[in-house]
Amino acid sequence: MDAGNHTHADEAPIGAESGDRARLWDLIHDIRFAMFTTRHRNGHLHSRPVTTQNSSIDEDASLWFFMSRSGDPVADLIVDPVVNVAYADPGDDRYVFDELAGWACVVDGATDVGPVRIFPNAESDAAHYAEIFAASLLAIQPGRAQTPAEYFAGVVKRVRDQCAKDARVPLESAPLASLPTAAATWLRVRDGRLEGATLGDTVAIIRQPDGGVSLIGDGGKPADEQVRARRVMQMTREQRHKWLQDLRAIHNTPKGYWVFGVQKEAASHIVYQTAACPPGTRALLMTDGFYRLVSPYARYTDAQLIAEAETRGLGPLLNELRGMEANSGDDAAI
User: Fold this and answer.
1) pTM over 0.90
2) Which of 35, 190, 194, 278 is the most exposed place for a label (fewest CB within 10 A)?
3) DSSP structure string for 277-323
4) What's the CA angle centered on 106, arms 172 and 113, to 5 degrees?
5) Backbone angles phi, psi at 33, to 5 degrees
6) Which residues of 150-161 are buried (b: 16+ CB within 10 A; e: fewer)?
């Protein structure tokens, strides 16, 4: 982003009344990122993460963001000045990207269930781990000649070193169920190819200009998670907590399955995939939670979901997902 230029968006539902402004600021002031959506010249909706620059809400209820004057968002605004800004607390998840370097990553932190906190001063161990992971991706930029495997060997080491530095207990002696973990899918465009790296149940839907659709990651893993979730929901609260602790304790061991964590061996279990990436290729990265719209809810196919995201934007899809999750009839159907 170019710190020398900026733009702002006016929130139509929030009026000039001080109570409205206070309510808006109370809702968004501690949310680091927003999704800024414009309508492209081809009519499609394009969303990208931006960082709010406000220290408060002005009397005209404006939100301010830094953007490059030569970037796509500003070009879109010249044609159609109507925008949408969506805020959501990411909790244990992170989305990190470098537009100039041509890569992006979604990180899905695993909710804390262990008997001790590893990072006591953080919002949660999962959120802090996801933040360390995202920061490490930005700190170690992949070289053009580097393979994804070479790149992630350095990322995994940096993540562990930073976790060891921030932890209140030695990682070697911490209970296995307390060690932080996360699923992540990373994509990079290089030399006309799309390179993917995944560990865990995050995925990316890829659509070629000819309409062909493929998946980076394992689409079966989110479905497997939901099968387990249905079984676990039959347990008592105490039984669920114990089950989650036991499951987390075997992550990144021969008895469990591999995700990103503090174990340096995780790097050797990352799944690497490639796909052709001609101009016009689209990619949609997501956590297993968002992929519920495909599996198990079967609301969309892979092709339909990426098309809906492009035409309607992510906000309406997230609202649709939340509605289905809150509907006992939808849960009963799966």
Assistant:
1) no
2) 278
3) --TT-EEEEE-TTGGGGTTTT-SS-HHHHHHHHHHH-HHHHHHHHHH
4) 40
5) -120, 155
6) ebbbebbebbbe
Q: What CA–CA distance (Å, rounded) separates 45 from 106?
A: 20
What DSSP letter does each residue of 104-166 carry, written as one string? EEEEEEPPP-SSS-SSTTSS-HHHHHHHHHHHHHHHSPPPTT--HHHHHHHHHHHHHHHHHHH
Residue 290 corresponds to which tokens in the numbers above?
Answer: 């968002």
Tell me how far apart the alpha carbons of residues 322 and 82 are, in angstroms, rounded to a whole number: 26
> What is the C-alpha end-to-end distance of the chain, expressed in Å?
43
| Burial group, residue 172, by CB count within 10 angstroms (0-12, 13-18, 19+) | exposed
CA-to-CA dists, residue 224 to 18, 53, 177, 183, angstroms? 48, 41, 20, 14
Q: Say how far apart CA 136 and CA 266 lie, in whole Å.
A: 15
Report d(CA 182, CA 9) in Å as an integer.
33
Question: CA 214 to CA 306: how far, in whole Å?
Answer: 11
**What pairs with residue 63 in β-bridges?**
9
Single-letter residue type at 18: S
How many C-beta atoms surround the C-beta of residue 317 within 10 A? Answer: 18
Decide: 179 and 172 in contact? Cβ < 8 Å.
no
CA distance 243 to 228: 11
| b/e burial code for range 109-147 (CB count within 10 A of at least 16 → b) | bbebbbeebbbeebebbbbbbbbbbbebbeebebeeebe
pLDDT tens per residue, range 189-237? 999 999 999 999 999 999 999 999 999 998 776 666 667 766 777 788 7
Query: How high is the pLDDT of residue 297?
Result: 87
Residue in this structure with the two tokens 């939901």, named with its chain if needed: 226
